[in-house]
Amino acid sequence: MAFLEIQNAGKCFIGKKGERFEALKGVNLQIEEGEFVSIIGHSGCGKSTLLNMIAGLNLATSGRVTVAGVPVNGPGPDRMVAFQNHSLLPWLTVRQNIALAVRAVHGERGAEEQKQIVEEHLQLVQLVAAADKKPGQISGGMRQRVGIARALATRPKVLLLDEPFGALDALTRGRLQEQLLKIWEAHRITVVMVTHDVEEALLLSDRIVMMSNGPAARVAEVMGVELPRPRSRMEVINNPHYYRQRNELLYFLSKAKKAAQGGIPRLQPATSASTSLEKTALSLGFVPLSDCVPFVVAQQKGFFAEQGLNVTLVREPGWKAIHEGLIEERLDAALAVTPMALGESLGSFRRAAVPLIAAMPLTRNGNAITLHRRYWEQGVRSREDFARLLAGTRRPVLGVVSAHSMHNLLLRHWLAGAGIDPDRDVELVVIPPPQMVANLRAGNIDGFCSGEPWNARAVHEGLGFVPATSLDLWSGHPEKSLILRQSWADAHPRTHLALTKALLEACRWAADASHREELIALVTAKAFVNADPIYASLGLSGSYDYGFGRTAHLEDFNLFEGASTNLSERLWILAQMARWGLVPFPVDWQRAIERVWCEDTYRQAAAELGIVLPEAGYQPLALPGDAILDPADPGAYLASFAISHPQLPAAV
Asked: What is the mean pLDDT of residues 413-433?
């Protein structure tokens, strides 16, 4: 049992006319002793209501709240609250306000001991010099410190903070956050804090609880803060985890705000009245990368419209947002990293799986590894040079766009091929593609693996160089696919067919070299990648700049569509995900693959367009410097690696 437990708790209020308002419903949360937990969410999501339930100021109308195994049935000295309004008694001095709380809770102790407790907490919040002043004679920040000292002086088991610094100016707020952090690190009291400030939550917390919108709000997500302790503000903002997690929190709050304003409707299964399609208005998600070309071309060149589709392209900040959009049914489909669907199918996201399918291959190649320029200056030209340089140095931090991506799998494979353990010798962090260059420039990461135009931008700005591209790692590797929910495909077979036809036409248009100049102008537009065309042209045009004077003509750097001829490439993705512990390797691996790569509609669409797709089957596969993957014995392939961190096998 956790120290503080909220078990299936709910809170209903009855209005003046007898109307019932359900503020919270089915809230479950476990907090360990000494943990610092923050609660965030859109206005009106019940954050303060939840805090008051823990305090016992409002009792749960369903479920229960316990502290150290004892049910909360009202206020108690084991739980003290510091509010945004400090609630000090104006006729008492700072010392007397704290002493009043001490006498109320520790009245059985002697006067000298009570005085010692008061003086100790005055020193703790650095208010000894102001101890004999009244609240009206000190600043707002000092009054807030008095409120915190008064709460701590009662020696509670749990300190509850309701936006304690919300009304303060930025400078005072920053100072008090640092002071609270030092107090918590010294005493390790259990703290639950409500805040609107995501930077504050990341600086102070062990975990951050994200509440869904009300009414009937619940715990939507819980984020573990991946920042080492002890913390200081400067160290925190220079940690790459900070920016990734900050953006995830801001994205959550932005999504909640739009939903509260009616801006993120759940997809409706409406049937089109004017055509035979089950649905014509589609929301398709993409991340701003050069290889979002199939969606952009299908939209801008009219291929969606020709198939009777009214498409809205939704630009998302990263692959986590794409994944959530599919699962939450905000998106009909997405141009997404292919391993995402396999990870979802095999339960890699640690919840009940929502079947996703890779319905059509959209792109191949298109990725590169970028390292910081200092490695070039230290003589690094290859992964072997990089491996030699690692001895006796700090672990480099390398960015990947998603754990469930070809970028992650290819980067890990590249590192391991030089004897570099990607989980021990370097630190891999997930960063959305558009943020890679900013993090490299700030020194938060030492390199990354991403699609374009972000490698090209790092090279163009003199920040780094490219030791390897897709053509060095695995020429022709599968990259992005059309990802759908299986349930969506089942409910919209004719719409699915029309969507696939439009994308086949778009890929065919994009593959024509004579269209590349127009293609670059389309994809770099503000609505899509929003980048200087010079960056995207370095990959899409066939001319590639590795940095520091090395250039090459890479005609196949970006390939569009490209049906598979060797199904073992799918087995490679599964085997590598199993190698690194993302999923257990299934006993019936072939069935697992067939459940994800569902291409009947793709092949039907191609046939109706007169496009002949090659026959495909399982054949041995070997990447540069890799053992042969024989589909007759994938276990032998997995066992061949000197560096791997697999899970136990699992049935499908």
From this structure: 94
